[in-house]
Structure formats: structure tokens, C-alpha cells
Amino acid sequence: VAAHPRQSSRTAPGDIRFKDLNGDGVLNAQDQEMIGSPWPDYEGGITNNLSIAGFDLSAFLQFSVGNDIFNANRIYTDQYGSYGDNHPVRAMDRWTPTNTNTNEPRAMWGDANFNTRDSDRSIEDGSYWRLKNLVLGYTLPTSFADRIGYSTARIYVQGQNVLTFTDYSGFDPEVNYSGQTSIARGTDFYTLPQARVWSVGFNLGF
User: For residue range 68-111, what is the model confidence (pLDDT) as tens digits?
Assistant: First the structure.
């Protein structure tokens, strides 16, 4: 969407300028248009398994390319000086009388100009590459396994959501606040990111 249906009439220096698409001099629902797509051009994964001298390594790399995310967090985080939300680092570059060459709006209490109305400012590239799963294991020599009463013994370390490469400014490009519904797909609104988890385990054979 390009603009919120509410009209803006109190624009001040440092406010965001929204495009009047139909040229009637009023910003309202008639200036909205469909933009972006939550559906990726390509998505998939790559799995690799290696083993040598008792060690084994398994890695699963997941990717999504070409999808957009509506970062609804910015409705609140980009209202610099308002609400109780933490602001992003880019707030340091907000408009001030001495810093006018910026794309970040001024700080204010309230949002008289509706700077955070739905617009393409909140549409971000959701493409990402993620090391989704990583397992490193070592199978102990048979002689050692025998001494502890087992035919085989293996120890491993496993990590989930180990590394993520993305330009998305939100917490996690792989989230959707409404679950799996296709109606609101690609919308992020304070959705908790997927946790990075490390675990240690043993495989023992009798």
C-alpha cells in the first residue's frame, strides 16, 4: 500500500512526504496501490554430509530469494520520541534542523503527519540464507566403546538456526505473525525470532 486512508494536513519540516498518486491534492485510500509480494522467486535447501577418521559433519542450508516482508514493527519503532518501544540505530540519523539530508523522520510526541502509515517504507526484502541445522559428531574407537560396555559410541554437538544472512532489518526473516495463513503471509509484527539452540548428545549401541 502507498498511503493510509487518513488525510495528512499538518506536515512539518522533517515529516515524510507521501506521493499523491491520483493527483487530487488529498492523501487517502484512493492513493493506495498493491506493491511487493510475499512469495519468493526461489526457495529451497542444500544438505551436505561429510565423514573422515571417525568424524562426521552434517549441514543443512536453507534459502529464500525474492520475497518481500511488511515490517509492521516500524509502525511503532520508527515513531522517534513516541511510545515505549526501543528505536533502531537509524534513529540516530533522524531529521533535525542541523541534519536535514536524511531519510529518517524527525522525533516527535505523537504522529500528527501519520509518518508511520502503511507505505513502502515498511516493505523490505525478505531474502535470506540460513544455516538451519549443523551437526558435528565423533564415533569413538571400537576398543574404547567395548571398555565402557557398548558396541558403538558416538558423541555429537548440534546447532539449530546457527547463522542467518539477510538484509531484513527485523528480528527474523523466516517469521510470520499470523502463522501459516496465506492471507497475511509476509507480515512481521513483533513476532519472536526462531531461537538458536545448541545441544550435546550421545549415541550408544549395544
Answer: 999 999 988 888 877 678 888 999 999 999 999 999 999 887 77
Q: Are 26 and 20 in contact (CB under 8 A)?
A: yes
91 within 8 A of 82, measured Cβ to Cβ: no
Q: For residue 160, which of 64, 61, 77 has the smallest C-alpha distance?
A: 61
Question: Is the Cβ–Cβ distance between 68 and 143 less than 8 Å?
Answer: no
CA distance 121 to 119: 5
Neighbours of 204 (CB within 10 A): 14
Residue 14 and residue 33 in contact, taking contact as beta carbons nearer than 8 Å: no
Output DSSP code: residue 11: -
The secondary structure of residue 107, as a DSSP letter, is P
**pLDDT tens by residue, 144-155:** 877 887 888 899
Q: Which three cell numbers stand for residue 155?
A: 558423541
How many Å apart are CA 124 and CA 71, to the nearest integer?
7
Q: What is the DSSP letter of 117?
A: S
Is beta strand 68-71 parallel, antiparallel or unpaired with respect to 187-188? Answer: parallel
Contact 174, 126 (CB under 8 A): no
